[in-house]
Amino acid sequence: MKYCIALIVLLLVFSFFPVQAALRLDGQDQELRTELDFILHLITREDYDASLYLLERIGDAGRDWSDSLNFLSGWVMYRQKNLELSANKLLKVGKESPVFYKSHFFGAYNLAHIGQHQEAQKVLYNIPVASGSMHEALRCLQLSGLALLQNDLDEYFKYSMSFVGEHHVMVEQERNMESHRRRLEEARTPSPLVAGMLSAAVPGLGRIYAGKTSEGIISFLYVAALGFTSYDFYRGGGAKSPMFIISAGVTGLFYAGNIAGSAVAVRRKNQEFRYEMEQRILFDMHIPLRNAFN
Amino acid sequence: MKWNNVFCLTCIFLCATHSIEKLSAAEDVFEKANTLFADGYFFEAAIEYERIIFLSESPEVRVQSNLKKAESLKQLGSFGKARSDLQRSLNYRGNDSLRLEVLYQFAFCSFMAGFSFEAYATLLHLRNVFKEPHEHRIYLLESLVLTDLMHWEDLRNHLQNWMVNYAENESWTQKTLQAYDDILDKGLRALEIDPERAGILSTFLPGSGQFYAGEAGWGILNAFSQLASLAAFGVMVYNGYYIASFFAGLGPFQSFYFGGIRQAGDLATKNKNSRLNELQTALAQFFFEVEAGLLDY
What we know:
The structure holds two protein chains of two kinds.
Chain A: H1 2-26, H2 28-44, H3 48-58, H4 66-79, H5 83-90, H6 100-113, H7 117-125, H8 134-149, H9 153-160, H10 171-186, H11 192-201, H12 205-209, H13 213-237, H14 242-293
Chain B: H1 2-28, H2 31-38, H3 42-55, H4 59-75, H5 79-86, H6 96-112, H7 116-129, H8 136-149, H9 152-166, H10 170-190, H11 195-204, H12 208-212, H13 216-238, H14 242-296
Helix pairs in contact in B: 2-3, 3-4, 4-5, 4-6, 5-6, 6-7, 7-8, 8-9, 8-14, 9-10, 10-14, 11-14, 13-14
């Protein structure tokens, strides 16, 4: 009898394992959770291609986990600098998700980075924030950055009024935004037309006006040298001399090229300034997001 | 007595069933990944091997899986990634053959990813831990690494060591070492191009630096350009075009002259690098032949 009881206990203990295994197998949630853990492991190892492959493979099975899947896909794409697709995924994360704020702020930032400023603004307006909260301050900072990116100083002042310096994650960036605004306001944007006219009057002067002094001096020396050469041929052989005609033609080409080059130099200089300011503004929009959500 | 027997037999049956289940699970752990690898789905296989690393608690299984993952990544040409993945297993202190394999694969992937110094350091470590003679592939890899690092003297000693360990025929060893010396001597002679010297030659005799660098065509063209611009200068001065002669004669001449000096140096550097590549390729080819010879031996 003693053996019989022991046998029954033994059978019960061993039969418990298959039941437990069956329960585990039945729980699709558990499988998905394990898969997501594995994907997180891959993301930590910066194996982004494999993570995306697995996220896409989950497909319909992850209907109930769509927020997590969208967030992870968006985050991986953000790390891969595939910002348009990243924004698309991140902005699908629902309000109930614990990563809603992170997703939408980063989604808006990604849109700002690829130049879709209006769309980024819309996303930021639609983020529900409590008055006086850090999220509200963060939204103001992002919107002020977007206003600067669009060179809309009135809009910037509307948001910069809310810079209170209360949140340590963005105190420095609030100050930086103000300095960017001042630089944009004070920046002289040279005109390509004026540069061309200056170079027509004195070769190379347009480039000096564009801030490229050494290029201007070299241009002047080239055109002057060609001009003197043409004069020399004219003096010796007259206006019909073939050497004068060739030399004058080359001089004319260089002269005209210098005028066009000055206009291009000004445009390039303006683009360089604009690009530098955009990068600085985007950087100061990005840092508080990393500080606040990581 | 009857109950006693039944109890014992039931215990044996249950334990055996569970043990077999566990055993087959351990054997099957690589099945899916191995099938993907065998079918040529290397990217998917690499993911499955990584999954085994993530899920397994056995250090040996993790190292085995890491090695198999490295194999998949090698098939994809991702040597840098394979190298960084293998780095995880470098601290493994278990099974000796696995440890040797990890060190070899790490050195191999480092070499292929362009980290020759790291590959050499790993091979030195391997040599320190595991006594000679090693497999031919290890000697071959070290030869290639030393060739890449241009450690010619170490390379000769290494070749001699390899031969001593495997080639019993002394005359064959000498013949192989002589062949190595011949390739190296010829290659090093061809490498004796000094870019600075090429520049100096062109300073005093236009075009000669290009000739010295092995680019006769560029030398002739440069010398001709300088002569032509000087001739134009002379003709213009003769005809009284003094200003034009200065800008249209001397101007181009100084461009060709100083440009020629710079070009001679650049060509010498370029040709030196290309000859070094040729030497390294010839040596690599030679080491492959040595390995094939030793394997036949």
